[in-house]
Write a structure and sequence with these properties.
With about 140 residues, the protein is of the alpha+beta class. The protein has helices at about 75-85, 90-105, and strands spanning about 25-35, 45-55, 110-120, 130-135. It has one domain: GTP cyclohydrolase I, C-terminal domain/NADPH-dependent 7-cyano-7-deazaguanine reductase, N-terminal domain (GTP Cyclohydrolase I, domain 2, 2-Layer Sandwich). It contains two helices and four strands, in the order ββααββ. It has a four-stranded antiparallel beta sheet with strand order 1-2-3-4, covered by helices on one side. The longest helix has 13 residues, at about 75-85. The chain is elongated and about 60 Å long.
Length: about 140
C-alpha cells in the first residue's frame, strides 16, 4: 500500500498535546574560524563549535512530506560556513551576533538561540563560549 492510499486520521491528538513550538537545530557544527584578539591567535584559524536553535511558526514547519514546504535548514550550515570563511573575527560575540542577525531576518522565525564555544582553549574545560537568545 502506498502512502497516498493511507487515509489521514484527524482528531486523534488531544488539544493538550497539540504542538506549541517547532524547532530546527544545527548542533555542534565544528568549523575553523580565524578568531581571537591575542597575537598568537591572529591568522591561525581555531576550532569553533556552533549550535543554532531556530523556533519557527506553524506555517514554516512542514505539515506534509514535501520538500518545498520545509524551512530551509541547509542554509544554516552553508551561510554560517560562509561567514566563517569570509573574514576574521576578534570576538565570539561578534561572530554570534552576525549569525543571529542573519537567521532572525528569515521567514517564520519566532525565537532563536545561537551559541559558540572554543573547545581547545583550556585542557580542563570542554570549551569556552558565548550565547545569544531571544528569550
Amino acid at each position: 500500500m502506498t502512502q497516498t492510499n493511507i487515509a489521514k486520521l484527524d482528531g486523534l491528538v488531544p488539544d493538550r498535546l497539540a504542538p506549541r513550538s517547532r524547532k530546527i537545530v544545527l548542533e555542534d557544527y565544528d568549523l575553523p574560524v580565524d578568531i581571537g584578539f591575542h597575537d598568537f591567535e591572529v591568522g591561525k584559524p581555531q576550532r569553533l563549535i556552533v549550535t543554532v536553535e531556530v523556533w519557527v511558526d506553524e506555517a514554516s514547519f512542514a505539515a506534509s512530506d514535501e520538500r518545498h514546504r520545509a524551512w530551509d535548514y541547509d542554509f544554516l550550515r552553508t551561510e554560517i560556513g560562509a561567514l566563517a570563511r569570509g573574514r576574521r573575527f576578534n570576538l565570539q560575540e561578534t561572530f554570534v551576533r552576525e549569525i543571529y542577525d542573519l537567521i532572525a531576518a528569515r521567514r517564520g522565525v519566532t525565537a532563536l538561540r545561537v551559541s559558540t564555544r572554543k573547545p581547545d582553549i583550556y585542557p580542563d574545560c570542554a570549551g569556552v563560549g558565548v550565547e545569544l537568545a531571544s528569550f
